[in-house]
Amino acid sequence: MIKNTGVRRRRYRCAEACSTCKRRKEKCSGNRPCARCIERGVHVTCRSEPRQPSTRFTESYNLNREGSVAVESASRDPNVQDGRPQESLYPLGLVMSNASTTSVLETSRLIQDTKGKYMFIGDSADLSLLQNICSLVGASIGPCAFVEDPFRYQMVESAPEGPATWLHARDHQHPAKPSFDEAVYLIRRYIMATNCVLDLFDESDLLDNVANWLDNHSDHTSVLSAIYYLVFAIGAQTCPEDKDALAKVYFDYGRYLTASYFMEDPIIPTVQAYAMITMYLLGASRRNAAFMYLGTAVRAAYALGLHRSDIAGLFTPAEIKTRERVWKVMRILDLFMGASLGRPPSTEETRNTELDENYSPSVDLCAIFEKILTDIYAKRMISTDTVQKISQHHRRWTAHFQTGLDTDRIKDEEFLEGRLPNIGLIHVQEAYYWTIILLTRPFFVEYVSSRIALKSQNCGDGERSPDPLRSSHRIQVHACVNSAISTVNMLRKLLGFDGIPKRLPFVVNSIFVSGLVLGLSYFGDLYKTYPLDDSLGTALKLLALFSQDAVAKRNLAILESLLDACRIYVQKEAKENMAIHSQLVSGMFGQIHTEDDKEDSGTTNTPEGDQSSVGNIEDQLRRPAVFNRMEPHDATDQGLTSVSTVGSSGSVGLNTLDRPEINNLNLEAMAAPPTFQDDISMLPPMSPRTLWFGSYEDNVPLFSMIDARDFLE
Fold first, then answer.
1. What is the pTM assigned to this prediction?
2. Taking the domains of the chain in order of start, what are their residue ranges?
3. CATH code assigned to 12-48
4. Kind of pairing between the strands at 101-103 and 69-71
5. Rounded to 5 degrees, what are φ and ψ at 35?
6. Which of 4, 406, 470, 532 is the most exposed place for a label (fewest CB within 10 A)?
């Protein structure tokens, strides 16, 4: 037992602790970066925030780290007045702790819509990942077009200008009903585009009743009329022909009938109509409006008890089937909106979705989405046990999903009649890969962020930097990147068809998420492991197919800008590695070019706009740094399999720092012109041996003499 000597030890406190140490309640050295942040490998996020006087009526919005937007005070921050919230210096999505648990900052996230209003965007949102990537890219290569995108804090929303005109549809003549052939065509286009995600009706039922509905010229206000007008609207909106104007006419009248006659009457057709309104608005790039209409549909579904399966005995088998289908659609739309916008789900599953009887892969996949959103993103914490439980559910799903495709009315074929792609099967598969990306994204973002932080440190002591990727988390990083590549490869088949729907919001979302993951993979040096060039290029081509979709066009512009940033990074890495080897070569063989000549040649070969981000290689070489030992291929420093690939854009898997005997050299010691003795010591021991300069073939033909005049004639 240690006795108290009565001498009190004086405590020294720094004048201003960094925000990270304040949040973690740890002792801070007061430096920038502080010792604790350097030790934890997050020194790029080390900063101190000036204390602001508390004001009772001051608004304070903090956008989460992964969203990387922080609006401290709308009244204090001049950037907010210009629609440019202050960018956060916290690029990490989730921080790995020693207890295998990851926590997120207790902050909220906002983003501007087209009218300048702030909308909530949560942790799982695509835009949150985008802002996170902007922070990481800026920390890696500095300012570029991708980082300084003026629209990076805005959400694409194709909201109509002025007051809504559909409310006055009764004042105008109802739209003319289509012909029978056109009605059949629009119904089939509706079924094709919404297969799996909007499974409300059987195609045969719609086709059998459409003739009677078309012949009844006096029926314009019935439930059936609202349903058919909305079906025609989605069919015209998604067909490859230009029928957008016709789609809007049908949609406005169908929405008018729904709001005027069925809004206050919670019946099954009401839920079906509002679900179709939600789907149409998603295709029209109006996600916030779709989110609001979905809320009405969900409340009506709960009012009808669709969330409970134990009351099925009160209904006929046909009614039970309809109720289950409508609830499944509610779940699909709700989980898609919740995951893509980062907003809390409005539905909760009470059924056992893994039962073999009437097994639905779509419903079971929604249960996986719900676990990820509620157990990880809602709690803002992730643990190894949670990942293992959800991954076990993934394995059970993959073992059973093909047996339940009939329940979801999805054919187990890659192509349908007419050699068109099976959109229903595509919807199921891309959702499966998206769940994996959502689950593993925090580990992937943390890996890339830690790797960027380690590269910016000066390891002058010659010791190996800590591994930014734990061995237990390597598979999560692989799973995230592999799922993104698998998504693109699975959707590649769409490039060979002309008759695919021109609006597929679920598919567009998966392409964009996969493209963001692929782009961020470059900055984790994973281009040396995976064929990122080919996959990212394919993602751009896929988004170009949906040029009628405003969200898809915006996503395409973002990925194109991200690809340019990736090329700058790869070129920067190549120049740094080439400079290192040039030092070694000039040390052994000398050099005939001066330092100024090298700088001039480097500037000449640098594309316009890249000089600021690539930087001066000679200045980097003069830094007091020791290059640490690495295993073959830089990416394998985190246990990643090395596969050198060459992409279409010319990005080659560079492994110029792969030899341990080279990487352990102190380049600062080589700043002075080395002697030959110094350089010969770098060569491996070699015994005298005979060199054979010819080929190893048995019969080597001799070269014959040719008269040069034969070439001049």
1. 0.73
2. 12-48, 99-150+356-582, 164-338
3. 4.10.240
4. unpaired
5. -65, -35
6. 4
